[in-house]
Amino acid sequence: MPASASNDASPTRSAADTAVVLVNLGTPDAPNTSAVRRFLSEFLHDHRVVDMSRWLWCPLLHFAILPLRSSKVAHKYASVWLPEGSPLAVHTRRLAEAVQRELPQHRVLHAMRYGKPSWKQLLQQLRSEGVKRVVALPLYPQYSTSTTASVGDVLEQAQGLRTRMIGDYHLDPEWIAAVADSIHRHRASHGAGEHLLFSFHGLPQRFAAAGDPYPRQCEASARAIAQALDLPDEAWTLSYQSRFGRERWLEPATADTLIALAARGVRKVDVVAPGFAVDCLETLEEVALMLAEDFAARGGQLRYVPCLNDSPAHAAALAGVVLRELADWQ
Ligand SMILES: C=CC1=C(C)c2cc3[nH]c(cc4nc(cc5[nH]c(cc1n2)c(C)c5CCC(=O)O)C(CCC(=O)O)=C4C)c(C)c3C=C
Ligand SMILES: [Fe+2]
Ligand SMILES: [Fe+2]
């Protein structure tokens, strides 16, 4: 199936020579072992994600990680799978449709860096359709070499297209306001927790030491959102989740932070994940199911604040980010 066949956002083509593409990480096609293995294999072969020598990494990946991890992770996907598919795929498609409604003068599509609809194939297809310019918006509010730069690698290889990539939007005022407002509304309907935890996807510490701006941007996003909510410093904490492998990742870990909060007697914690544009395995299974269960076992209540997903405020914020990039490009 060509990549764009999965793109339902119906474009108004008055600016047919320009395409706007929201690019997310990717996700398996099905919650079963073979589909998860295919996805993990493509993802974990990317040098941007795992930068070890291939002589060391490939045997480890093929003979240990893929055989052992795929079925375990397939069960996790099954626990959050939606009737229409993987949450990340469903929410990304709907978000692209919502941004298309905000930008009727442009053609808005979505693609995945790994899996389908393929980012690489979409670029080839756009060129064959006569598109001249592509603006890529990686759906990572904070820049990281492990995620954003990998989207850029594919874009740089695209021949015969003029391209731009929006590197990050971690302090975009409309995006900050949208996240703050979603927390505010969640607290208004569920009652405010005693503490707000900002949980971001983690990264090996080595990446940060080599200059990856990701942790600084996570800190800046969390601080700006807390400020928008008028929260004093002691009312919120930033932590990192989804550790993979044995090396040291960014700290504190979300799981350890929740244990420490429970030990301090905090009973109601709101958790928000502003590093994820849309809900996915890492937010729905790891945070809203598993960490919530662990926290409940310690006598507490974890209330997960959903990602912005395809909310109108999210679509408007992202459309604004794209329009500013296009205005700069005339
Ligand atoms: C070395 C491994 C990994 C790095 C580095 C990494 C960085 C990173 N990832 C995201 C966002 C997402 N990651 C997701 C899943 C996921 N991530 C890793 C590993 C690394 N991530 C794995 C192995 C997986 C698959 C699940 C698993 O096996 O545990 C997802 C969700 C995908 C989905 O289908 O729902 C997202 C989103 C960021 C933002 C990031 C660096 C900052
Ligand atoms: Fe390999
Ligand atoms: Fe990840």
TrEMBL record:
<comment type="function">
    <text>Catalyzes the ferrous insertion into protoporphyrin IX.</text>
</comment>
<protein>
    <recommendedName>
        <fullName>Ferrochelatase</fullName>
        <ecNumber>4.98.1.1</ecNumber>
    </recommendedName>
</protein>
<keyword id="KW-0963">Cytoplasm</keyword>
<keyword id="KW-0350">Heme biosynthesis</keyword>
<dbReference type="InterPro" id="IPR033659">
    <property type="entry name" value="Ferrochelatase_N"/>
</dbReference>
<dbReference type="InterPro" id="IPR019772">
    <property type="entry name" value="Ferrochelatase_AS"/>
</dbReference>
<keyword id="KW-0627">Porphyrin biosynthesis</keyword>
<dbReference type="InterPro" id="IPR001015">
    <property type="entry name" value="Ferrochelatase"/>
</dbReference>
<dbReference type="Pfam" id="PF00762">
    <property type="entry name" value="Ferrochelatase"/>
</dbReference>
<dbReference type="InterPro" id="IPR033644">
    <property type="entry name" value="Ferrochelatase_C"/>
</dbReference>
<keyword id="KW-0456">Lyase</keyword>
<feature type="binding site">
    <location>
        <position position="282"/>
    </location>
    <ligand>
        <name>Fe(2+)</name>
    </ligand>
</feature>
<keyword id="KW-0479">Metal-binding</keyword>
<feature type="binding site">
    <location>
        <position position="201"/>
    </location>
    <ligand>
        <name>Fe(2+)</name>
    </ligand>
</feature>
<comment type="similarity">
    <text>Belongs to the ferrochelatase family.</text>
</comment>
<keyword id="KW-0408">Iron</keyword>
<dbReference type="GO" id="GO:0016829">
    <property type="term" value="F:lyase activity"/>
</dbReference>
<comment type="pathway">
    <text>Porphyrin-containing compound metabolism; protoheme biosynthesis; protoheme from protoporphyrin-IX: step 1/1.</text>
</comment>
